[in-house]
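Shift notes (night). Ran HTH-type transcriptional regulator while the centrifuge was going.
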Amino acid sequence: MSPSIARFVLHWGDLGSQWGVNRSVAQIHALLFISDKPLNAEQIAATLGLARSNVSNSIRELLAWKLIERAPLLGERRDHFTAEEDIWEMATRIAKGRKEREIDPAEAALKLCNAEAANDPDISPQAREKLAGMLEFVTTMSSWHDEMLRVPKPALMRLIKMGSGVVKLINWRPGKSQN
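Came back to this:
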């Protein structure tokens, strides 16, 4: 493996662990992403110096996230794998997966907490207001996420590239009331 590829794989592994993803999972993803050809588990283990069992578990996780897929090769009995190459598709799948695993359960829990708080005489009006505000925030962000995933990639890219132009478009200024 070239030094620049090794650096990418190691860096992606470090980033993965900062994002709450197992380092080995992130490194395997990086290796498959950057690889010019499909790799089997043995090749991955040998290249990264990982235990075969670790590679198998990591591959299962990456398959579940739909970040990699099996790539059948003629004359090969072993499974080979490739990573999604479209950066937007990869980011979208990660965003969807994280929302399903993290935001949706938080939203459901906040809905339940708000429903219970509405009938609980021991909860202050301020506490009810804080719970309602948190639920509104999470629900709004969840809806925004879903809406952004429906925007076609080229339009979303134009929106992102607008950067501070979006702020100008909505006429936002620091210190100005934004309600």
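The longest helix spans residues 87-118. Strands lie at 39-40, 68-70, 80-83.
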